[in-house]
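Entry 12.
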Amino acid sequence: MNAAGQGALDLAPWEDGTALRVEVRAHARQNALAGIRDGALRAQVTAAPEKGQANGAVLALLARALGVPPSALALLSGAANPAKRIGVRGLGPGQVAERLRP
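Predicted 3D structure (tokens):
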């Protein structure tokens, strides 16, 4: 699954992988990647932003899009905020960009 939209992702080296910014919209009609805006990947999830439900849904969505197990992802910041920073273990910035290319 690739991200729709224009622009380049703001990717940074992180531990043994890559960190990226993700803007999340909860209570969406469907789970989907919705493009890139200002360097952040836009994600829509049907889950509510309560008790970590939306966080879990966005991590699962991103894991599927990147072709990695959910355990390869870490929520680095933004647990209670739509603006999140997520770490991806085992993939370099170029690999993440390639897998999320529109």
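Annotation: The domain at 11-99 is CATH 3.30.1200.10 (Conserved Hypothetical Protein Mth637; Chain: A;). The longest strand covers residues 17-25.
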